[in-house]
What we know:
By secondary structure, this protein is mainly alpha-helical. It is 46% helix and 11% strand. It has helices at 16-30, 39-45, 53-60, 64-72, 91-100, and strands spanning 2-3, 7-8, 50-51, 80-81, 87-90. The protein is globular, with a radius of gyration of 14 Å.
Amino acid sequence: MKLFGRAALPPADAGKAALKDAxxxxxxxxxxxxDQPGSALLAASVRxxxxxxxxxxxxxxxxxxxxxxxMAKGIFPRPLxxxxxxxxxxxxxxxxxxxxxxxxxxx
Length: 107
């Protein structure tokens, strides 16, 4: 599965470092610096990136209704109000939520 058409999500057995690398690539893509010289350095220096619901769905693999159900239960990060009608999530909060999930064991 590809994230934003470029960066692949890490496999289920990848460590936290792989997830952080994927988050860095996603941040670079989201701020429009993909394939630009020095983009990795600039993306690493950006404190946080706000992402919209379609990108949250791509990162988590969850549908929009599932995200809102989890938010209603208080177990998923809430978005920030960026305009009167627009909402966005901090990429760092979404990646932290993904890292906090338990891996399912093989039965």
